[in-house]
Every structure is written in structure tokens, then in C-alpha cells.
Amino acid sequence: MLDDSKKPLVSVKDLKMHFPIHAGLLRRRVGEVKAVDGVSFDVMEGETLGLVGESGCGKSTCGRAVLRLYDITSGSITIDDREIGAIPQPDLREMRPTMQMVFQDPQASLNPRMTVEDIIKEPLDEHTTGTDAEKREKVGELMDAVGLNRKFAKRYPHAFSGGQRQRIGIARALALNPKFIVCDEPIAALDVSIQAQVVNLLEDLQEQFGLTYLFISHDLSMVRHIATRVAVMYLGKIVELAPREGLYAEPLHPYTKALLSAVPEPDPSLARATERVILKGDVPSPSNPPEGCNFCTRCPSVMDICKRVEPEYREVQPGRFTACHLYNDENGTAG
Amino acid sequence: MPDGALPVLDVRDLKTVFQTRGGEVHAVNDVSFSLKPGELLGVVGESGSGKSVTMMSLLGLLPTPPADVRGGSVQFDGKDLLHISQEELRSVRGGKIGFVFQDPMTSLNPVYNVGFQIMEPLRKHMGMSKAEAAARAQELLELVGIPDAKQRLADFPHQFSGGMRQRVMIAIALACDPQVLIADEPTTALDVTIQAQILELMKELRDKLGMAVIWITHDLGVIAGIADRVMVMYGGQVVEHAPVHELFANPQHPYTRALLTTIPKIMGERASRLTIIEGQPPIMAGAPTSCPFRDRCDVAFDRCAVENPPRYDLGAGHDAACFFDARTGGPRDA
Fold first, then answer.
1. Residue B184 near residue B53 (C-beta atoms within 8 A)
2. How many Å apart are CA A30 and CA A14, to the nearest integer?
3. What is the DSSP string of A51-65?
4. Selecting from 3.40.50.300, 3.40.50.790, 1.10.150.130, 1.10.10.10, what CATH number does the domain B9-96+176-264+277-331 have?
5. A78 FRET partner, CA 20 to 30 A, in A316, B35, B157, B221?
């Protein structure tokens, strides 16, 4: 998937999203939560970039910022050769059909007072012209595509199960023939037997419509299944980005190593045989990140330099990026 | 895990029904299991499979109505927990049986400091003085690995992170030296690296304190890492039950087999496509007259639609509730 003929559909450079903290009687600005703090990555056409990390690492904020659901603090976002990082919201409307989102909680992201047909038709009403009959026909096609029975078009979201509701959310995202879809934990709220159904559907749709996904998840096993390349976030920064095979077989960054070893393996002999890296302590607050490397407070291979100098995010092997002093030339102690 | 020891908890044919406007929902159907001292029993199932309701029924924690524990027996400490007074039951709960709930954010009281909340069961159940309870509370916080235990006792729940709060919950559950600890999805709300910390802690505490643990989860990975025996639940019933290695190496029920293939792996071969279990979990209206899994099962046959399979003993502590014999590849003898 990484051949040179593929060009990036989405290109993010040094994206920052800081939220102000106001406190005191006069609600003065006393600091900021650096939810996303200088993130750069490309998403190639037709690929799935997995974005993983623990809660609070900024992965969802990153996904929402890339779609400009926030007014970003700084950085550049190019989608389909158009810079959208700084353009005002009204101009963004023109771009919206190209980029869509599937949300985590299918319960909360569907209006309970709208029928399924109205929910899927809403983007068509907003962005396309055409008769009502044409739109209804399109809704029918979308329902077929995501495996929902057309007969249920007049029902309300509460009549559907979690997996079916997620299908409604996917159909709505597909309505305007987007190129790029941000999937924000689309399966986290579903049961294991239903998760596989939705993941297979997303893969089928990708093939059918040539979609490009940014797949945000905390489920490392599922990301291994669906993603072409994987980016690992920690405390607002990407610590490692690599093709799937390489990342899972031989993680470079100590955080990636710890994260992978913490995933429970559903095989008792393997689970008990593997030596786990148990991280001590909790993630520091993103409003007050440590000096130097963000991971230095929990890193098992921490060095002096890590507490002073922030490691540079750079390509250490072809296609593999990481931000860690272990892989800088002067400390050639890689591995 | 001592073999042949008398079970510390023995549940037989537990049956719980909810009265709803749409009729009766049979949430727990004839669930039986036993727990030996020092053993860790894993209970796996999807949401709605009845795993939490089973545990809440046996502790009398469900509001009646709508819940109605229709039958069965729960032998613990020489008594049947289903037939003792509320008063007696209250002395068992939080005393000899401790429990930890899923969500550490909502199960602690935000207006009391954690010291008070750990000391409460100590004073109620063990009759300790304030000073004794405070000393024990500090010990407990140290036991679950919270640094600066003495200072932290005065802190309120919001001053703790999710993983730390779950440690506080475990400390409360352990306060009265329980013989049985019931942990209902204790790590589901936590991140993987924090989950790994809690799992290590549980294993350590179990070995140190020798109590029996029931660990409820939907995550087969967690079960593989810590359980001695596993009980798989589906549609309010136990569909398969086996020692952990046997269950993963040799699953006999079609649901267990499907569940094991549907989760992607973090190591080893990567499947190009995920196996899926078609359909939806059952709605458990009315008493079961057929196998709850038959609509989603790939080996179902006529008998599955007219009879609910009993749990067939397969030897070596393994049983499965299925008319299809995976070993012979045909139906079991009637």
C-alpha cells in the first residue's frame, strides 16, 4: 500500500489544538490544555490510518480538529489539495461533503426524534439539489449498502440495536460520497460479536467506494486488523508512526512496546508466557506536561537527556517515524 | 487451587425473572456454579447475557419488583443466602463477600473522603474503633499500591485518577478479609496500561490473601491472563464451563468457538477478514423452550428449536450446553 504512486489525500503539519483554562472570579486565562500539541501525519489515498492511544491522549481531539470541528490553534491541514487549516467556517461548508465522520456513541449521535430516513437524508437536503423522490431513492441505496432493511426507513433510532444504529451513522456519513471519513471509536460501544460485523462493513465500503479512513481506537487488536499504517499518540503527540506489520512485530518507542504488551492476549499459554512491561503511574496532565520527553515520567528506558530535551519526531527507518532519544544517532543504542 | 476442597460458594439452579410492561424477561436461567477457596473463576459474556444479574441476584442486590429471584439456592458459609433475613444478608455483603463494580467514577461517594469510605465497612462489620479502622485503612491503601497512603486517606474521590479509584474500590472490597471477592468488569472503564496494573495487583492479592475471586468480563483476553476456570454465559444461561487452558484450546460450544474467532489477535497470524456471528443476541421473553443461540448457530438442527440443551458433562471439569457434539461432529445421543 505504500508505493510511491499513492499520494496523500490528507496532510497534517504541526497541528496544535490547545483549550484555554479559565479560573478565578474574572475567569482569566490561567493556562491551557495541550490536547494536541504538534502532530504531523499524512493519510494516503485509499488507506486506513489507525490512530491509537489511551484515553486523554488527544486522539479524538486530533480527529475532530482534522475535520475542523474546532478552530485549531495552529498548524496546516490539507485535504484533497485544499488547505483548510485557517479558512473560516462558512468556506468549510463547501468542503464538508468530502470529509465526514462516524461517531463513537451511536445512541448519542442520532437524533431520537428523527426517523432513520430523515437522519440519512439530512446531509442530502443540506448539500444537494434534487427532488425529494431522488433523495429518498438515494437513502434506500445507502441503507442497502450498509445492510439495513429498507422497510425500516420510517422507524426511529430507539427501535434499533447498537450495531444497527452504528450502521445508520455510517450511512449518514456516506450520503454525500465523501473521500475521507474519520471513524472515532466506531466500535467501542458495541459487543464483541457485533464489532466484527461493523468492521467488516467498513472494510467492504472502503473497497466499494474507494474511501480513506482515519480510524481512531484504543483497541490495538482491532487496529491491527483494519489499519494500513498506525500512529500511536501519547499526551498530545505522536510518538510513533509505522506500517502495521512493522509496528506490531517490532515496536520502536518504549511507550508502543508497553502499550502492546499490556493488551490481554486471548490465549492462556501465550498470555502467561509473555513478559509484560507494566508501566508505573498515570499519564501526566496535558495542561502541565513534563519537561523534555512527555513519556519520561513513566518510561522504563529513561535517560538523562529525556528529562531535559524533547526528542525530535523523525523518520528513523524508511516509512517509520518515532520521537525518542534512543534512536538518535549520538546515542546509538537502538533496541 | 486446591483440588477436592469444599466449595466456599455453591450456586444451584438460580433463576431470576424481571417483570416488565412487555411481559416477563428471564434474565438468569438455571445458573449453577461453585467456587473453591483461592480459585479465580472468570465469567464471560456479552451485554445482556445475564452475568451481572446472576451476581446481583445471589447477593440480593436487585430491587424487587421488578426483579424476582424465582428459585435455586446459594450456599455460603453454611447458609442459603436466598433464604436469610435482609439483616443477615447485609452482614455478608461487604463483609465475607466483597465486591468491586465496573465504574470507579460512580461507585464512590463524591462527598466523603476515601478514608471514611474504607473505614465504613470496618466499623460496621468488624466493630473496630475509629483509630483501629484508620490504621487498617492505611494498610489497605498500601496493599493496593497507592503511594503516600496516610495522606491520601483524607483525599476525595475526584482527587484520584480512574486507576487509583479502582484501587480504592478494591481496598474497600478487601477491607473485611472477604472469603469471596466478586469483581464485575472492574477494568472495563480503564486504559490498557492501567488495566495491566490492576490485573497484576489482583493476581498478587489473590495469592497473598488466598481468597476466591469471581471475575466478570466481556474480554476473553483478560480471562486468558488470570482465570483458573471459565464460565461462558449466553442468553441468561451457562453455555460452557471449563478450566481456562481447556476452554481456549478445546472450545466445545459453537458460541464459544465463534467468540474466539471473532476477536482479532495482537500477535501471530492476522486474518484477512474477521469471522462474524450473524444476527443479534436473543430477547429473553418467556421461559426458554429452545437453545438461545440457535438462530446464530452454524450447526443448529431440529432439536435445538424444540428443546433447551442441558449442560452435558464432557469430563475433566468441562461441560457444554449443546446438542451438537463437536468431538464426533454429529448430534449427541438423546
1. no
2. 24
3. EE--TTSSHHHHHHH
4. 3.40.50.300
5. A316
B267 lies within 8 A of chain A by CB: yes
Pairwise CB contact (< 8 Å): B193 & A262: yes
Query: Which of B221, B220, B255 lies closest to B235, judged by CA?
Result: B255
Q: What is the pLDDT of residues A4-49, one digit of tens each?
A: 557 899 999 999 999 988 888 888 888 888 899 999 999 999 999 9
∠ CA(A122), CA(A125), CA(A131), 5° rounding?
Answer: 130
Residue type for A283, please? V
| Predicted local distance difference test score (pLDDT) of residue A130 | 87
CB neighbour burial string for B160-191, b if at least 16 within 10 angstroms, e if fewer: bbbbbbbbbbbbbbbbbebbbbbbbbbbebbb
Is B94 an interface residue toward A (CB < 8 Å)? Answer: no
Local structure of residue B159 (DSSP, 8 states): G
φ/ψ region of B88 (left if φ > 0, alpha if ψ in -120 to 50, else beta) reads alpha
Complex ipTM over 0.90 = no
For residue A118, the distance in angstroms to the closest alpha carbon of chain B comes to 25
Q: How many residues does chain B have?
A: 334
**Contact of A247 with B270, CB cutoff 8 Å:** no
What pLDDT shows up at residue B289?
85
Q: With a CB-CB cutoff of 8 Å, which residues 207-226 of chain B face chain A?
A: 218-225
Cell of A297: 515520567
Cα separation, B69 vs A99, in Å, equals 52
Would the pLDDT of A333 be above 80? Answer: no
Helices in B18-71 by DSSP H: which ranges? 51-58
In a mutational test of the A interface, the residue from B105, B246, B267, B295 whose CB has the highest number of chain A CBs within 10 Å is B267
The residue among B105, B191, B223 with the most chain A CBs within 10 A of its CB, best to mutate, is B191
Strand positions, DSSP E, B146-193: 180-184
Q: Which residues of chain B have pLDDT under 50?
A: 1-2
- Crossing angle, helix A192-209 and helix A162-174, to 10 degrees? 20
* Rounded Cα distance, A61 and A241, in Å: 18
Alpha helices in A146-264 (DSSP H): 162-174, 192-209, 220-226, 244-249, 254-262
Average pLDDT over residues A79-89: 90
Strand A99-102 versus strand B237-243 pairing type? unpaired
Strand order across the beta sheet in which A314-317 lies = A99-102, A180-184, A212-217, A48-52, A229-234, A237-243, A320-322, A314-317
Q: Quick check: B264 and A218 CB within 8 A?
A: no
What are the sequence ranges of the domains in chain B?
9-96+176-264+277-331
Give A183-219 pLDDT, tens digit per residue: 998 888 788 878 888 999 999 999 999 999 999 998 8
Q: What is the pLDDT of residues A253-312, one digit of tens each?
A: 999 999 998 888 777 777 777 777 888 877 788 888 889 999 999 999 999 999 999 999
